[in-house]
Each structure stands twice: as C-alpha cells, then as structure tokens.
Amino acid sequence: MMKKILVVDDEEDILKEVTFILRKKGFEVLCAADGKEALEIATQQNPDLILLDLFLPIFDGTVVGKRLKTSDAFKHIPIILLTASADNIEEKRDECMADDYILKPFDYKELLEKLSKFLS
Amino acid sequence: MLFTMHNAIILAIVAICVSSVGFLWSLFVYLSRRTRGNSVSQRSASLEQLVLNSGGWNWEIDTNGFFTYSNEAVKHILGYEPREIIGKHFCDFCPPQEKEAYFKKTRELFTKRMPFSRVFMKYLRRGGAEVLIESTGTPLYDKEKNVTGFAGIDHDITEQKKIEAAFQESRDYLYKIINSIADPIFVKDRDHRWVLLNDAHQEMFGIPTQDMLGKTDRDYFPKEQADVFWAKDEAVFETGKENINEELWTNSHGVMHTIVTKKAIYTDKKGNRFIVGIIRDISDLKKVEEKLKKAMEARSRFTSVVSHELRTPLAAMKTGVNLVLDGLAGTINEEQREFLDIVRRNLDRLARLINDVLDFQKLDSGRMYFKMEPVDIADLLHETRDAMKGLVEKKGLEFKVAIEGRLPKCVADKDRLIQVLTNLINNAASFTHKGAISILAAQENNHIHIQIHDTGIGIEEEDLARIFNAFEQVERERSPRREGTGLGLAICQEIVSKHNGKIWAASQPGQGSTFHVVLPITQEG
Lengths: 120, 525
What we know:
The complex is a heterodimer.
Chain A: E1 4-8, H1 12-24, E2 28-32, H2 35-45, E3 49-52, H3 61-69, E4 79-83, H4 89-95, E5 100-103, H5 108-119
Parallel strand pairs in A: 1-2, 1-3, 3-4, 4-5
Helix pairs in contact in A: 2-3
Chain B: H1 2-16, H2 21-35, H3 45-53, E1 57-62, E2 67-70, H4 74-78, H5 82-85, H6 96-112, E3 116-124, E4 130-141, E5 147-156, H7 158-180, E6 185-188, E7 194-197, H8 199-205, H9 209-212, H10 217-220, H11 223-239, E8 243-250, E9 256-267, E10 273-281, H12 283-325, H13 334-364, E11 373-375, H14 377-394, E12 398-403, E13 410-412, H15 414-430, E14 436-444, E15 447-454, H16 461-464, H17 488-498, E16 502-508, E17 512-520
Parallel strand pairs in B: 12-14
Antiparallel strand pairs in B: 1-2, 1-5, 3-4, 4-5, 6-7, 6-10, 8-9, 9-10, 11-13, 14-15, 15-17, 16-17
C-alpha cells in the first residue's frame, strides 16, 4: 500500500521539489503551506509521516507538532522536522515533540533514508 | 628653714613635672620674687641646678637689653662662657638681619611690662651657626615696683624644629600623593566616621572634606543608600576581610553612578581599626559593557537570521540540482552533468561556509550547547572512520586506525568530537596526494592522545603557529586549490578547549603533518 506523507513548508520551491522526489519514489504526497492547513490535512487525511518546517504562517511548526503529539489519535504519526534554523535544533525538536530532524540544505537521499527508517 | 621646706615640696612637684618648662618657669618666677631683694648669691643653689639640668639657659637683662646674669647652660646653647656674654647686648648674639625686628619686639615687651612665653628667636653660636631659641621671660622689679629688667629661660629648639619640619614635609608629601590620586579615597573609623578624605573624594561627592570629616554616610545619603553602605562597611570590620563592592550611588544631580569600592582594614598602633577605601566610578565602563552586550546579542541574532535565510534558498538549489543530476527528471548528457556537478560542489561549499560561520559564532559567544556524557573514544574513532572511509579511499589513499589497548571513556560531546576528527581527516585528505592517513589513539597517564597523521605536503614552520586562527588560510600559492572556510581549525580548537583538551600540529614540509588532540579522562558522569 502506498505510504502517505504530509509535507509542510511555506517555501513553494522546496515543497515542489520534495513532492516531486517523493512521488517519483512511490509515495502519496499531501502538501500544506501553513500551520493551520497542516493541522487540517493531518487530522482529516491521517498521513503515515509528516515532514514539518518550523517557521510557518498562521501558526508555526512547534504548535502543529505539539497538537498532534499530545493527541491520542495522532501521536503515532512520526514527525521529522525539515528546517533551516540550525540554532539549538535538538531543543526545538524536543519542544515540538518531533521524532527527528533534517537540517536545510539537505541531501534528499538522507531524507529518503530517514523516511524508510520510520515507515518500515 | 621655711625656705628649705618650701623648696623641698616644690622640688617634689617639679620632679613629677620636670619636663614642663612652663611650670618650671612659673616656679622660678615665684621663687625669684621671694628672693628678690636678697643678693644674687643667696639664690637657691638647688633651683639653679634644676634649671640647668632641664637644659634651660637662664638669663637676666637690664632695661636696655644688656645681660646681667647667665647660667652655665649658655655654653651648650651658644658656645660662650657666662662671663663672655654678661655686659653684652643680647642683639650682639643675633643674626644682623634680625636685629631691627628684635629691638622693636623688645621695646614692645618692655613697654607692656608683661611676661612672655613661646617667643621664638634666632641666635648665632660661636662660629656663626644659627640657633633657634624658644624664649620665656618675665619683668623684674625693684622694691619700688620699677622694672629693672627681664629674667627668662631659653631652650634650643633647633633640632626639634628640624624634626618637625621633616615630619611636616613627609606628611605634606603623603597628602599631596593621596590628593593627586584620581580615585576617591576615604578612611573611616570604627564608628563609620570619616577621618580622611582626598580631593578626588570631595570632587566626586561635591561636599567639602572639612564638612564630611567626623560625619558618617547617614549624615549625607538617603537612608536606604546609607544603610547599604553601612552594612557593607560593617561586614568588612567584622570579617576583617578585604572586600570589593559594586554599589549604585546617586549624585546630587540625581544621576545614577556605578561605583566599585575596594576596602581594607588598617589597624593603628593602639589597636584602633579603620576602613581604608578606594572608590572607582565605573559608570562609563558599565555603559560600554552594556553596549557591547547588546552588540553581541545583535550579532548573534543577525548571524542566526542570516544563516536561516541563506539555508533556505540553498536547500532549494541543492535539492533541484541533485534530483536533475540523479536523473529523476529525465536523462542528462555528460556535459550537462559536468556543469551541474560544479554547481553541486559549490553549493556544498557554500553550505559548509554557512555552517562554519554559525558554529564559530556560537562558540565565540559561548552559545554553543555541549551535551557532555561518557563517550567511548574507540567507538567514536570507528564511527568516524566508517563515515570518512569513502572520501579518503576515493582519493586513492590508505586509511588506517590503530588503537593502543583499551581506552577508558571520556566525558565529551560525541557529535562535537566527531566534528573535530572529521574536520582534521578532511584537511589531511585534501593536502595528501599519495600515501596514507592514519589515526593513532592511546592512553597517556590521565588523558587520551589522538594523532591524525598524513603523508601530505606538510605545513611550513611559520604557518604552524597561525593555522588555528580564524580566517587564516595558508596563502594560496603555497597550498593547492582550497575549498575550506578558514574556520575549520579555529572551530576544532574551540571545541577541544571546551573539553579542557589541547590541540596542536607538527609537520615536516614535504613529508606530512600530524595533528594532535589530547583529551582529559574524567571519572565524572
């Protein structure tokens, strides 16, 4: 069965590239460009994994992560932060209760490796 | 008989107060009056002896100023026998330039017919040396109460004056030094009263020193402020410990100053204790410090924002180039691949630069977070080797790791240490064209010594000292094309020093370099 991945980023270019790669690699991809949209899609579509940017319009990635991870219905969904803010990245990961992080700029192969680790 | 009785009593009193010339003098005058009318030979021999013993020169002059009597003491004071001066005018023994003034003074005293004391005058000793005299005298009367002359006792105070002058001079000297010190100085007694203040103190507080002496902080400062000063001074008195306090102080214009006071205890010969304090106004320093702090914060924010803003487009570029290069968007020809490869390499270089600048900035401002835990160095070396193997072997170099015995654990941040080793191996690989890179690790006493050796081009001796400085790359003509940031080794050094370790390099140009990292073994954790 096709794994469903929610990619959340307000950078259109990155969203487009990541979506392209993931679809090529056989994933079903859902996209969100702000925090509100991300929460709506996550709760309605129940993805298998979320790639989450931190700085997002409306409300940021930390809020999205915390909401989902503190909810019994969604806390099982792995969240990988995909962010360019390198400052205290471990702290930020813990704060939004994410499972892992990838720092931008990233190697998409590393991204695929992490995906397969969480989806196996 | 009665006379002798009198003498005996008085002598006893004199024995107690023998140092008091004034007393002696009144005694002498009293007795003189009693004896006046008797012949000089009837004067008390004991009394004369007493005056003589006190070192006093006893003399009498007539109304014209001629000596009519002198005791033996004149020999010590002026170097003349009594007979040599009797019949001479007292001004014959004075410095010529003073005569006029002395004549005038004498006439005045004679006219007033009053006793005098503490009159200072100069005489000339036999031979011409000046002698300073303190003179005490009283008029002499005949039976008809007519003044017949003066009698008196003089003492040589030349030496005493010299000592006093020297004392005054050294006192002035010290005061001048204390007053020329630009920092306010104060001395307070055990009751917190000011006993000494210098000019700088007066200037800073705007209150005349003479007003403040004898007063305390409570007389001049608002209660809350005075209480703080008081308590801090009291603590110094109680502990006896030298103490440096930073205090806030509002001046008379309502301007807040930050002052630092260094206080110490001084105990005088009698055992009285004093606080000696030096105040330094560090308000300007504080302002600079404040500005610097703000500038550092602004720089940190700036670097972090810039780094974020640079990373985002880099990420888009890198991902785009990579997916094309890897054929995800269709096949590309060799030439296209070659040029896209250039783009990819330079994007990586830019990313490294951003990472290094950010790391260095964080280390420099102390904002780098270290996760210290026991780390197995052997594991760490194997992990590093596995990660770097590809890169080293791709260059056709041999890659060896040798660990001597079993290494104990070190308390360290594993990821940061891997960063150091990766950086050193990367450097070694980029400066070595054939041969090997070998890592050697061993325990030496209470530290672990790691060596990264290469068979590369080596480092000139003059460059060895500065390769760890930030932005110091060895000049380009002496090294091959570099893609480094000039920060790698500076970052390594910062990370190693945060582990209380040491890092240095040794090299034989043309034969290779060895980078040494020494880490302390700590039992903690």
